[in-house]
User: Fold these one by one.
Assistant:
Number 1:
Amino acid sequence: MMSNNYDDQLPPQYSQEFGDEEDDEMPATEKDLAEDAPWKKIQQNTFTRWCNEHLKCVSKNINDLQRDFGDGLKLISLLEVLSQKKMYRKHHIRPNFRQMKLENVSVALEFLDREHIKLVSIDSKAIVDGNLKLILGMIWTLILHYSISMPMWEDEEDEDAKKLTPKQRLLGWIQNKVPQMPIKNFHRDWNDGKALGALVDNCAPGLCPGWADWDPNQPVENAREAMQQADDWLGVPQVIAPEEIVDPNVDELSVMTYLSQFPKAKLKPGAPLKNKQLFPDKAKAFGPGIEPHGNTVLQPAVFTVDTQEAGSGEVLVYVEDPEGYKEEAKVKPVKNKSGTYTVTYTPKVEGVHRVKVLFAGQDIDKSPYTVNVTKTMGDASKVHARGPGLDATGNVANKPTYFDIYTAGAGNGDVSVVVIDPQGKKDTVELVLENKGDSVFRCTYRPVLQGPHVIHVLFAGQEIPKSPFTVNIAEAPPVAPPTGVPVKIIPQSVCAPPPGAKSGKGPVAPKAGRPTMNPSICRATGRGLQPKGVRMKEVADFRVFTKGAGPGELQVSVKGPGDTEEKVNVREVGDGVYECDYVPLKPGKYTVTITWGGQPIPRSPFVVEVGLEAGFQKVRAWGPGLKTGMVGKSADFVVEAIGTEVGTLGFSIEGPSQAKIECDDRGDGSCDVRYWPTEAGDYAVHVICDDEDIKDSPFMAHILPAANDVFPEKVKAFGPGLRPTGVVVNKPTEFTIDARMAGKGHLKIYAQDAQGCTIDIQINEKGDGTFLCVYTPSKPIKHTIIVSWSDVNVPNSPFRVLVGEGCHPDKVKVYGPGVEKSGLKANEPTYFTVDCGDAGQGDISIGIKCAPGVVGPAEADIDFDIIKNDNDTFTVKYTPPGAGRYTIMVLFADQEIPVSPFKVKVDPSHDAGKVRAEGPGLNKTGVEVGAPTHFTIYTKGAGKARPEVHFAVSGAGEAVRDFEIIDNHDYSYTVKYTALQQGNMAISVTHGGDPIPKGPFHISVAPALDLSKIKVEGLDTKVEVGKDQEFTVNSQGAGGQGNVGVKMTSPSGRPIPCKTESDKAGGTHGVKYIPPEEGQYKVEVSYDGHPVAGSPFGVEGVMPGDPSKVRAYGPGLKGGIVGKPAFFTIDTLGAGAGGLGLAVEGPCEAKLECRDNGDGTCSVTYLPPVVGEYDINILFAEQHVPGSPFKAAVRPAFDPAKVTAYGPGLERARAGEQASFTVDCSRAGEAELTIEIVSESGAKAEVRVQKTAEGTFSVSYTPPFHGAHTITVKYGGGVIPQCPKVIQVEPAVDTSGVKVYGPGVEPRGVLREVTTHFIVDTRALSKAGGGRIKVHVINPSGGSTETFVTDKGDGTYRVEYTAFEDGMHLIEVLYDDVAVPKSPFRVSVVEGCDPTRVRAYGPGLEGGVTNKANCFTVETRGAGTGGLGLTVEGASESKMSCKDNKDGSCSVEYVPFTAGDYDVNITYGGHPIPGSPFRVPVRDPVDPTKVKCSGPGLGSGVRAHVPQSFTVDCTKAGQAPLDVKLYGPTED
């Protein structure tokens, strides 16, 4: 049991010792702590209802929580109900004194203490005195203990519960029960009512299926719907009202009190559960596992499926690979997050996969997903390398060597090799990586240094096994470098107060004699006379009984509100009975006066309070007890809820006697009500809902006197038609009434369905006191049947029958790939869906069998999984274990559905006939003992199976080693092995146990290869061009396949044909060829594809010697300078073979050196010691070459340091004017003098040099530009002292007097696309003008902007330009090509506008006419970029339109409606343009035809010399000058 110490659970309003549980709670405000705070009232109401809910079982009730516990009796009763125990000591049953009350409360508090329920700061005095704060705290402690802490709930571990506070425990239970809602507290999260709907629906799926779509803006309606369903069908009383639980001021304790009832709630039979509608399209899948790219082979692909908005159903995921093979992915629910699943699958092949995500057997949104799976990077551990180039010893410097890299079965990846020389450098060793095919790469490299070399071999960026390799390179003479081709590789409360009506003594009977009128005998009864219950616009009827009242006349009057007379209908029906009715049209008090013979009858006048027109009804009442009954027997009727909202019910009986009332809540939205009348007469039965009579209430029941010969209690009613379940819609059902022991009476049956519709029941009397009753229900809802005998309810009546939908196997639907006739493969998972949504009631049964021969000689059952979804569908999963025929049977309610059985054909999972194998490891020849080899098995299109390989040899022992089958994950497999035995070997390949085509493969294994036994013989290093040549390759004892390959390349890079004649048996191979050209040949010799030792070999092709083809050239053959080497070259290319001889003869011996350049030429140097003539003799093949002997004149040496230069031309110069200086070389020896003068821009000035004396030169030059120039003087190629020298060349003209000004060169900048200008004033230099000014505008992009220069003829120039780029522009101004001061000018260009450049014109700016379009034009060309603003203000509004003419102008029209002056405002860029605003006079249009003239002066009888007059009316003709002219007979 959990701890009963609740100190830490009480809120602060009950104890100062306890703190709030939530850290984020705001401190209570003064308003919150006020005595009338809303939450306090809600809490008091909730705790009161909670107490009453428990006290009702002992027929006790609390109205005032503050006062009703004061005597201790109800507190003791409450504790005994909650604990199911008696008090430990006696208490006072009638506590009339305060001390007795205190003792009673002490008994209760002592009980709590002995139950280990600790109360803080409360004693018996506090309760007796009505301390509401402490009483509420005590009730909360009881709620915590008995409703939250003590009970054990389903789906909860005892150990887990002990670790939590009651609040945490309740919140955790709710969070687990309602994962769809983020419920974190007991106040705010319940304010919209949707959480209540979710809780009810999760406790009883289908009870509130539409809660997710409830409008959060209607919280009261949402809460009322959920709480009523919980009350009706889960037995959760509404201890808090819907309006209170959604009140923002509600406190947590009230909400917890209500919610604590749900863990113990149990669903009642007959609950109106609705199948949940599922929404597969609302399920979402997301995560890297379904992204189009980013998933790789053998790497788990993970994604998430969220079905919280889709409903409750099973999630299945199938992954289909590129070949169509399906596998089921692993689906795992996410802990503490219902409706969310983690899906994992591992793709095994590369290519496009289809991921099919099913929810309740249907594809979710966007399913299937297309996922492109790629291979991972290769596995370097499966790569190996071997060859002489990796041997620790045996390789020499400057000699090519090689090794092979085997990548079969290693997957994707690039091969790379890095060779590090002894000095740690990576770029000194030349290497070539060549793809030899069949996953073999050859690396050939040529080390140039001796010593240890480190070789790194990498695959997919990783070192292969044994890498790096250390290779010691020995010293050896250099050889020609090798050549080759490089290869690059994501139940409501019922109130029934006792009646207050009392019966009085009846009237005294008159004495016998002549009949006299006695109104007191009369009586009136009926609904229309009841004080309450009648509503406006309803027929209010009653009857008047006058029998025995003597002679008289009945008068009835009804007066309504305002003392108005109402119409009354009176009808005599016989036997002194009159039926009367009236229809009140207004609410209010009505007075019904009834007189007999002018005298009022008893109780007249009757006062009737008429209520408002009946609105929506929450309940209805029906049954015999509302119409009739019998004294001494119960009068029964039924009250049913019309909707989900019931309200508070109440009943009252008014009649001749008091009547005891009982009400039983049936827990299905209805209750049985009965009352016991003790006197005969008419009774008014009031059925009250929310303090108002329901429609037609009060009901008038005529109670008959007791009968001694009627026994309703002995009537028996039985049969299937009265059973709670088993009745099916649209099918007749029956029941029997046995009244043989019930005495005299009549049978009457009342029957309605849940919608208030009357049920037609056929009653057949059998004549023996029994009756057969038959009815056919038309709706699958609850039917209520009341059986009465002589208007009295019989035992067990009313009967409530829940009509079912029936069973309809023909409406079961089955669909999905698992029941298709074809398309399935063995061992592949599949599924199908069974939809029973329209089939009614029944269980589903599935059977799957396979035909004989599939898994055994007999027919066999196949395992399957069946998963129920919330929408009455089932998902069935199974995996066919083999190919063949399958039969699937589907039964519903033990009946096979019409379309069952399903015949399904399952195809084999693989086809070995579609498999092929190829590669070097299957070649008849080519496999060697001890040499690794491989081949590939291709299974694309052959289905899912695993290949197997077997080797067979004739000899004993193992056939192979290093055998491995590697899955390449692209429907191919690499098979690696190393043969161990020489001779014939058979290789068998199977797929799924079946042999593949062309198998077994027979191969011949050759002996192991030993390249050291290969010898190349007879290959000369020099051979003559054009003659037959021959050499031999000896392979005796070398093993292998014996294949010799020879490749010969000419000096020009062309292949040379070679003929090879092989004698494999003898091990000799002869090679013949003819060299076609002279030069170095490369001869590559290989054995079984491996280079032999020494390959490639160098062979030189030579021609016969020819001295005439030798050429000698160079300055040293003509002469030289004493003490300096003289050079020349000898070219013997094409001269054939021959020796070269050199000799230099002269005044003294000259030292001679000769260097072979390796390209058929040699470089010769000699050093003459003295001046003089030397003879140079060159001989080839002992003969002089052309030009030999050569005469060479040797001159004395020169010294540039002894050259001097001087003169004004070295100090200054002026552009365009000649300058000069002198160079003295007389003491420097003989050499060439060179002079170069270059400007800053790189332009060279023309230089003229004239020899003036021996060794002296005059130099003149004319610089074309001003600025810095560099003068460089060289003698004999050497720069003389003080050179190079920089001088400043002055301009030809002085531009310091030139002025440049204007907006176009202002630093503040100009506007883009706006023409600007500036002035160049040259009047200080010239007033004549002329084309002496040049202007260049350079844009930020480097281009130029066009300029327009206008010569004003007075020495000033106007320059205009328009910039079209933003940024800094450079403006260069030149005068006679000389820059003026401050040039170049830096001007910033920005976007903007110049309103002063905008022009507006047209008649519409000069005058206007009303009701007509007045036009004008606005030109913005050259004004920049800006917004054009147009407004017209005047005597009236004007309609305006503007049209862009696309040429920098726009046409504007405006239509004024009233004459007067108007202002036309035109702005550009927010500023007015010149002339704006324009004042425009607008006049009305002139129409002379509307001018009217009248008066005597226009008559035909005008007399001369008599003044005449007439009137001219122009009011409708517009405004214009009036011109009147009078013409006489003489027209003057």
Number 2:
Amino acid sequence: MSGGSSIVVPMVLWGKYAPTHCISAILSTPDMKNIITGCNDGQICIWDLTDNGQLYPRSMLFGHTTSISCLALGSNQTTQPYIVSASENGEMCLWDISDGRCIEHTKMSQVHTDMVSYHFSNTKDYRLVCNGYYPEVLIINPLSFEVMICLSSKVVPDWISACCVLRPATKDDDVVLAISNSGTVKVWTLPSSEIKAKIVFEDESKQIRCLNAQTLTCCSANQRTVLIVCSKYWQIYDASDFTLLCSESNRVGERWCGGDFISVDRVIVWSNEGKGYLYKLPTNISDNKSISQIADPRSSEYRHHQPTSPHAYYILDIYSEQQLVCTPAMVFSKSMNGRKGLLRGDSDGRVVIWMLPEVSEKQMTLVRQESFDRLPALPPKTSTTLQDIWDSLYKYPPGVLEGLCAEDEHHLRITSTIYIPSQGKMVCGRQNGSIIILPATQSIIFQLLENNQISKDSISQQMLDGHDGRVTCLLYPFNESTRYEPQHLLSGGADFSVILWDIFSGYKIHTFTVHGGELTQMIVPPANCNVRILSSICSVASDHSVALLSLKERKCILLAGRHLFPVHTIRWRPLDDFMVVSCNDGTIYVWQMETGHLDRVVQGITAEEILNNCDENAAPMENLTNPSLTLTQALKRRNFATFRNLAQQKLQSHQNQQQLSQGPKADYVKPTGFPMLIQGVRTNTRDPDAHVVFFDTESLIGLIAKAKEKADTIGQKIQDKVQTSGLTVGGRDTSTASRGSIISTASTTDATRPDSIRLQTNITMEIAQIFMSCLHAWGLDPDLDKLCLNKLGLLKPQSPISFGLLSRQGHMSLMLPGWHKRVCHSELADLKGVTVSKIRQGDVKSVSFAEPPQPPGGSVSGKPTLLAQRMGSMPFDDEELYSSDDGANNDDAFDDSLPVPEKHINATALQQETGIFSTKARWQISSAVTTQHLLSVISVANTMMSMSCASFLMKSRRKKKKQGVVTGHAGIIVTDVPDGDNTDDMLTMQQAQIKQGWSLLAALHCVLLPELVGASHYKPPLLEMLARRWQDRCLEIREAGQALLLAELRRIGLEGRKAIVDEWSPFLPMYVDPNLSLLSDAQKGEEEDDDEDDESMMAGDLPAHKVSVSFESRRKQATAIVMLGVVGAEFGHEIEPSRRKHEEPKKGGRKAPEGFSLTNYSLARHTSKALTFLLLTPPSSRLPAHTPIRRAAIDLIGRGFTVWEPYLDVSSVLLGLLELCIDSDQIVPSVTYGLPLSPVADACRTARHALSLIATARPAAFIITMAKEVARYNAQAQNAQSQHTHLQNLVLVRARQEIQHILELMVEKMPNDIADIFVETVDVVVHCLDMGQLKSKGLQELFPAICRFSMVSACNQTKRIWVGAKNGNLALYEMKQHSKCQLISAHQGPVIAVCVNPDGKYLCTFSHVDSRLKFWQTASSSIFGIGSQQTKCIRQYSVPKIEVTPLTNILKLVRLVWIDNKTVVLLTVDGSETKFSI
């Protein structure tokens, strides 16, 4: 399954040390707003550059496993800020730099050393022109990494060392110019027309004296000169015939590294010392005379020419004392507005930018006269490192242990981390060999949020001392599989030992000393190994040895120690009892686990085959996942499983059940679906761990809902005033002797906290508290903020939070601290009317800091606050709502008028910065981040709202003795209920306030956020991400996604919706190549590439492996169908006035989008076809049954039925929906408690909802279609008795219960519509009811809803049903299987009352149109008589006319009542009674 169908929100605790960033490649965007640096450890850093030269780090991207070799732009469209990175092992990634998403990635066999982005004349967007360790030049499409053209050599093929592309002014063709390592210049011409050939050979080549060129650049201004830079010299050549024009040697002790043209006669060249030199070319070069021509003494030029050698006129240097560890990465950048800069990235992560000045000829002449050594030097405009940014913050970014350890231990770095989700504990190994265990949620609250409850002393820590030197890796095997003991923890250290600990007691159980080097990794063998291996773990050390250590026998089973190179990966062949160790040099060692023999050593292709074969047999590949791995280690070992698990956290209850039913392996199911995971991250092995906290929204909602389930049972008991004696929480019994019962007895003081596992509910609630506190938009609505603090128990962040974003296959982007400074400075400048260039600690005093500023939409400006907007007035008295419970004010605001001490200035500044971050900065990170955060906040808030009393407040509430109300940490309020109603009122009040709070919180984020934040600061959610969540597995996320998408579509208005329709309509399956169409039948040859789980089609991300074009195309189609379906259904043509009168003011003046109106309906037709196809097509490999896209189609058919109806085959759609609803009561549980429904149940639930929408929107269409189907069915049934079994399997028969359910709903909701087509309705009702029961129990008992109408009457004596029709007929139904309805003409107008007398012999009918009351004889006179002949009118009376106005409800006009067998009374609506007798 693709990573991304679950929403995972990462937050990162960087700690006080910035990550190492040894820059190996650097790039600037065309507008010079962003700088991108790639480093030797494989990370990429994105920096924002302001106009005044300030540099702010934005985010760090993780995903490459080796050093970044080159970077290039990925698109020239402003809507796609893409860059491409390539690393030294052939990996290529396409990133969106606005949010750090990895859009596409691949691994090529070729390794690129250089990539140039170029817009060819025959392409829509950039192509990458790549060269490297291979003899061709590849032209690659950066959006798909497909090689479009391969430029090969016929003459002297060799690796290409540099190349460039130019378009001659005279022609439309593009020319690729390249130089090989051996000095051969080659030229390829690519015509502007479409090139069919994949391989193109060079047009000409020429050998020149220029080996191993660093760069080759053509002057874009005149296209006549070419600059080639080699390490010893740089040269200018004539572009037409490659004659040498001039040359310059390197400086002493420096080597040239690259160069570029600044203008026609000036170049910039840089050296390995990180210095840039500006040169003026000799004037004759611009006239393009070759050196040989000028050097001829006979030529006239020789006598009066300018100097032939270029001369330097400027040097760019930073003059630092620090020695460079390696050559800096440098690049010359020309921005679109004409600014020119030289960028340099150093080994210590320093980014240096020089802006080149304009130097006039006059100034140059002065330089020329000066001594050559004293070149004028240009200082850099900007020079900064990540650590500088860290140091400039008011407070260092929080780390996991900051402020928690003893004073003398603050300098100790964390060297390894592991998180134990089952106990909510985090284990950190440090550089002095100590291991510290502490509750994860409490320490995160302590670091990130402002709170008075948790202090350093209240967090219980456990220390394990045993290692001598660094703790290099940790493993908690129970995380991986339940076959291990929950108390066992393993640690490996730099002292070559592995120690087995009991974490409950802190006791050291055993020390394994078998390795001869420091431990690098510990992993768990797969679950299908033999029994002896199952109780052991596998450890890898830096002496290239691998050991299997048995935890049961406390000894080493196998020591594999003959590997010559570092161990790269470990694979398993459990069935053959083999452990396969792959080394860095590509060699594979196959070890027999049981005996410890080395079976064989293999290299080359065989080795690769063996490795790949291991994957097939060892299904539990997942077990290479080890939370203690550092990010880089995991990446270096291709251990993507680690990240896949983080990205995919799915509640695998469904799969687990299947495994349970399959056999004895069930207890080895790996636990997943944790709401929070903590991963240690480091960019370099020498760095301390930073910590990424991953929150999984879906799992969190599931666990909160479980807590709710328990809370509901308690709440019920309280209401019933039943005394509870015990309660199961998190799977463990906690009996409480008190009369009340408090969920989660774990309190925050050391005295009462049990050492054993803390209760799961408690941890879940703490996780939810951190999650919601970090994600809530603080500062936008002060009243709501008070409510959140005082009633809901949310906590304000202490400082700006670094969020992250997970994208495909473990690629991840993490925000860097300090980025928010950019927004804060501009905001403060606007606020104070001063420009704050860079606030350092010294000059903070010049700016007066107060409370976080009021946003434009805040309540100070006189706008009603959110509470008042929603409620019309304050719902509760203000004091009660906003006061905190202990009476103290929670705000730590500093008063401007008071003199503020020095250290408080920083605190206030930090508080203000945090305020600006949460009101402005975090909403402009990127659309993807906004989408994730809003979906998460709204879905969790709705879950909390559905709980009885979900507040996170940690203190006991108002323990007034007479009322005895107490709250557990889980926020469930319990009381021992004394006499009197006060307590109930207070509880109800409390509950109402808390529900109100969550509701307002959800409303703020769903609807009001864009207006409060302000359009300039708000990156709106991505509509396509929301469209893919339209039918998410998790109901809460689904509802949040739907609400957000609709709110956003309303916000963007008519124009915006039109743009959306224009953008997505080309992807509708009708308009796409049929081979790639979602709606075409699967092609025979294509099925194998279509085995991606269909869920990924609607998930947030693409599947992990290389995406096939067909899959990407189908995914776009799926999104287009949903997007256009939503636009059509919600904003389609006018909703007819009679149907939804109450919605008129909202939707009346609306214009339908193009393509969905009554006049222009092409899109409506195509969309409805696509939706019906998705509903009705039988399951196939390409489109399995019950997938999210099918559910979305079902949902949208229901929502927009009025729009689609003209283009649908209504009966097949209704039957298709009914088929999904068969046995719905068994499939859909009555209460789900937030757990994902099974796909079948989910489809069933959605179909039921769609049917009810269709039935209420178009009752006539529903009833008449069903009546036709019933008539068709009855005709078949009468004609073909033999095919009885076939008839019983028809949808119409199997879905009787569901049809009856819908009819009941319609009778209740729209009786007048039913009355218009009453005979057809009864047709369907009679079909749905069981004849046997109908005869024995009667219609009144089986279908009481229909008997409310006065125009139906059933006789239990004669087993008949009589119905009055609108056209004046009388319809008669015999209670027999498949009997036909008989019609008798009775009145001139609608028959509005029918009644059979008690003995069934006479029938009375009435119509208000002809004002007649008629008596009919019903009993048959002869034994074999047929009823219709015998039913005859025996008497009729004229009745005074009853006045009817258009507003009269005909259904309530009259009623007929028999008072005995011969007399009937006519009751009219005005209260008059008239008696009639036969």
